[in-house]
Design brief:
- The protein is of the alpha/beta class.
- It has two domains: 158 residues, Rossmann fold, CATH 3.40.50; 155 residues, Dihydrodipicolinate Reductase, domain 2 (2-Layer Sandwich), CATH 3.30.360.
- Helix content is 31%, strand content 27%.
- The chain has eleven helices and 15 strands.
- β4, α3 and β5 form a beta-alpha-beta unit.
- The longest helix has 14 residues.
- The chain starts with a strand and ends in a 20-residue tail after the last strand.
């Protein structure tokens, strides 16, 4: 297996957590890139608060020489949208660098943006590199759904219910999901920002099961509560009538008649609630798999790091995680080609 030479593209919280995991494993980071600003010119190890500098100076992503880095794989964590990330993809692909992308649309480009997938896939194949969307959805949403479905002798449908702590990733993400907004503000701001992301989860699961998906319908609405709920992002209580966050409901139908219903809530948690995902099998036997997500930040970053050997070994082109097999931990201190 190819020895990873890793580039970090985007140095937000998920990337820096990945840097800490990679450093602990003893794998090699050869470059780091960020948009122009205060992070450019800093040592990556210092920014990640490691015990010592890494000797990797963060470069301006628009002016860096990617071919000079020697990287064969990049962890890209900038934005959920493929179109926004497109210039970065072109830079990395042009330098012959495989891509692990942390972003909602990247998990299943054929479902989220088929127009861009049709452009991206031949670009990757021409350059001889692969692209995979990876993060906490890997095990907690997609592979848990496939495993649940695999228990059935007769599958009529799947139901996916999830609760994500909207406060876990900070104020910007909390606002992104509609937290703290009035219902009018939610309608004005959130429809365009949230749409099209979570619908790809049940779509990919049914597609990976070999079913012919004929329709994917999505509905977005605010989550309200009749009592005040504390938000750590706001450091204040959200009053009744104000949005705690978003609920995304997706209905997927197939030519075979097997359906999926997905109900995803991203919001401030009420007392006693925990972040989790559930897959329920409608069929024989009735089965339910529940995943409790104790540390979403670390899990997201660990999934990206654990997938490095899989992505390096994958065929060129878009390679979705449902085709790469279930995620596996990589041994601490081990070489990825051991």
């Amino acid at each position: 297996m190819t020895t990873p030479k890793i580039a970090i593209y985007g140095t937000g919280q998920y990337a820096l957590e990945a840097v800490r995991i990679i450093a602990e494993k003893g794998w090699e980071i050869v470059a780091a890139y960020n948009r122009a600003g205060a992070k450019v010119g800093r040592d990556l190890g210092e920014l990640a608060e490691l015990s010592a500098p890494m000797g990797i100076v963060i470069e301006d992503c628009e002016t860096a020489d990617y071919s000079a880095s020697g990287a064969n794989i990049a962890i890209h964590s900038v934005n959920d949208r493929l179109e926004y990330n497109w210039p970065a993809y072109e830079r990395l692909i042009g330098a012959g660098i495989n891509i692990i992308c942390h972003g909602g649309e990247s998990y299943f480009p054929w479902g989220s943006r088929p127009d861009l997938a049709e452009k991206l896939d031949p670009m990757l194949k021409s350059a001889g590199v692969s692209f995979t969307g990876v993060g906490i959805w890997d095990y907690s949403r997609i592979w848990s759904g496939l495993i649940a479905a695999g228990s059935a002798s007769k599958l009529d449908g799947l139901v996916h219910r999830t609760l994500t702590n909207g406060d876990a990733a900070g104020l910007d993400i909390f606002r992104f999901i509609g937290g703290g907004l009035t219902q009018k503000e939610f309608e004005e701001r959130t429809q365009g920002t949230m749409s099209g992301l979570y619908r790809t989860v049940p779509h990919q699961v049914l597609w990976a099961l070999g079913l012919d998906v004929t329709a994917v319908e999505e509905e977005l609405e605010p989550v309200l509560h009749d009592e005040p709920v504390y938000s750590s992002s706001l450091d204040a209580y959200i009053e009744p009538g104000t949005c705690l966050g978003s609920r995304v409901t997706t209905r997927v139908t197939t030519r075979e008649g097997i359906t999926a219903l997905s109900i995803n809530e991203l919001r401030s948690l009420r007392p006693g609630e925990t972040e989790h995902t559930i897959w329920e099998v409608r069929g024989k036997p009735a089965t339910e798999i529940r995943v409790e997500r104790k540390d979403s930040l670390h899990s997201s970053s660990a999934c990206m790091v654990n997938r490095i050997p899989d992505v390096l070994a994958a065929e060129p082109g878009i390679q979705v995680i449902s085709k790469l097999g279930p995620p596996r931990p990589q041994r601490l201190g081990s070489s990825a080609n051991a």
